[in-house]
Structures are given as structure tokens and as C-alpha cells.
Amino acid sequence: METTPLTFDSLNDLSREIRSDLFAGKYSPGDWLKQTDVEQRYGANRFEVRMALNELAVRGLLEHIQNRGYRIASHSSIQRDQLYEVRTIMELAACRLIVVRATQEQIDSFGVLVAQFDTAVEVGSREELRVINFRLHEAFYAMAGNTLLAEEIRQNRERGIPGRTGTWDTVASLRASNADHIAMLDTLRKRDAEGLCAVVYRHLNQWRAFSTSATTE
């Protein structure tokens, strides 16, 4: 009987699939991920599942409970506040680099994504908004010209996703997020570091006005 050889690509693919489903809201905070269920759902073998779940636990997306297994991370209010404090420090530092280092081509490409998100607010699905939002923020922090910093920011953004509620739960909150994207583009075009930092700070922390127990971006 022939078997498909195990590769690092297959492990990475499985991890990406689970992450994608998590970010799409297919899991809730505290949900247990039973290995047998994950094997069946994603067509993976036990070793692949264990490695993928361990990787997601290292990233802070899952919690590994000794002798029980893995469950979707559920942050306390203190943990979430600390996470956003770290994010704010890193992302404001990145803003100052972006203003200096961003090329006109990069700014124009970022502007295209801002326009796409603006249009999707009125006519797009939540899934489409999620995908554009991810690309938009990836493009924004790539302009800092520091791949290590951009990766750290991305990982911390992902850590805040499990259980998030609030910012996109109402039309008003979604439009507030959209307005921030437009303001980010405007201040970036002006090379206004202080203005950009102020907008990004507001964008990062606006969840507090829309949520009492969890967060979004």
C-alpha cells in the first residue's frame, strides 16, 4: 500500500488551513481540538496533526493543557490588555520607519487595498473584508523595511484574533475601521509621522469602545 510521504510543506499546509478556519470564525475560544476530529476534517495523519497543533500553540493561538489536549486560546482581560500594549509599542515604532522608508510604489499599492476595503464595506462579504484587511495590514507593515519587525507584528495580530468581538459587529464599527485605513493612507502620503502614529494608535485601541470582553482590529 502506497502512502503519501510526509513533508514540511504538508505540515505547513495543515497549520495554514487550521489558522485560516480559526481566523474565519469557524472555532470559538475554549473549543477543544480533538486529534481524531482534526485528522478527519483535514485529511491528515496523527503525526501531522500533533506537529501542526504544537506549532499553533507556540504561536499563542492554541493552549496546550497537559493530559487533556489543545483548545482555542481564550485570553483574560489582563492578557489582552498586555498584548495590545505590546502591539501598540511595536506598531507605532513601525509607523515611524514606514514614513521614512516607504516607496511611492508601495504607497500606491497600499492605496489600492484601502480602496478595495472601502468598496467591500458596502457590497462585500465578511470573508472578503477579512482577506482584504489581512493583505492591507501586511502591505502596510512591509513598508517598514524590516522583515523581522513585520513578522513579529503579524504574529501578535494573529494572537489577538481568537475570541475577538466588537469592532466588526456593527456597521458603525466597521465604518470606523474603514475610516482609519483611509486616514492611514492620507497621513502616509503626507509623510506625517505623528499623524500616522495617532491614527494607528486609535485603530489599535478602538475595540475598547465597541467591546466589553474581547477584541478585534
Describe the model.
By secondary structure, this protein is mainly alpha-helical. It is built from 10 helices and 3 strands; from the N terminus they run H-E-H-H-E-E-H-H-H-H-H-H-H. It has helices at residues 8-23, 35-42, 46-58, 77-101, 104-123, 126-142, 147-159, 171-189, 193-205, 207-210; strands at 32-33, 62-65, 69-72. The chain has a 3-stranded antiparallel sheet with strand order 1-3-2. A hairpin with a 3-residue loop joins strand 2 and strand 3 (69-72). Helix 1 (8-23) crosses helix 3 (46-58), helix 4 packs antiparallel against helix 7 and helix 5 (104-123) packs antiparallel against helix 6. The longest helix is centred in the middle third of the chain and has 25 residues, at 77-101. The protein starts with 7 loop residues before the first helix and ends in a 7-residue tail after the last helix. Residues 1-9 and 212-217 have low confidence and may be disordered.
What is the topology?
Elements: H1 8-23, E1 32-33, H2 35-42, H3 46-58, E2 62-65, E3 69-72, H4 77-101, H5 104-123, H6 126-142, H7 147-159, H8 171-189, H9 193-205, H10 207-210
Antiparallel strand pairs: 1-3, 2-3
Helix pairs in contact: 1-3, 4-7, 4-9, 5-6, 5-8, 8-9
